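Protocol step 4 of 5: obtain the predicted structure for the target chain.
Materials: sequence only (see below). No template structures provided, no constraints applied. The aim of this step is simply to have a reference model before the mutagenesis design in step 5. Sequence pasted as it appears in the construct record:
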Amino acid sequence: MNEIGEDQIIHHVLSTVKTIALVGASPKPERPSYGVMGFLLGRGYEVIPVNPGLAGKTIHDRTVYGSLADIGRPLDMIDIFRASDFVGGVVDEALALEPLPKVIWMQLGIINDAAAAKARAQGMTVIMDRCPAIEIPRLLGH
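Step 4 output (structure tokens):
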């Protein structure tokens, strides 16, 4: 896909999703997931942190869930801050949700073609190796 087509897809995703599960959320301000979560919250998205080791605690005043299934309500997008090797498991977890999330987003440096193909085969939009905190100002201007 050329960059113009990909930009249109990313613009559409960022303009339409409302509820984002952020997998691999960290309470440490120096971690990229912490900064991106704060950025997304500041742009009006509802962000739900997911980290099994922190379940029940809070990050940015939001309760942390241990898994996607624990959230118990529809999610528009799954934003993955886990190493590429772990993405397959996250996608499998997302594919077990009802209704299915619309988008799987893998952060900068995270690429898993097999997991992406599995998600796309179920009708999900997949974005890899991108960061919404970079794409929102670039494509939406805020």
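Step 4 remarks: The chain has a mean pLDDT of 96. The domain at 3-137 is CATH 3.40.50.720 (Rossmann fold).
Proceed to step 5.
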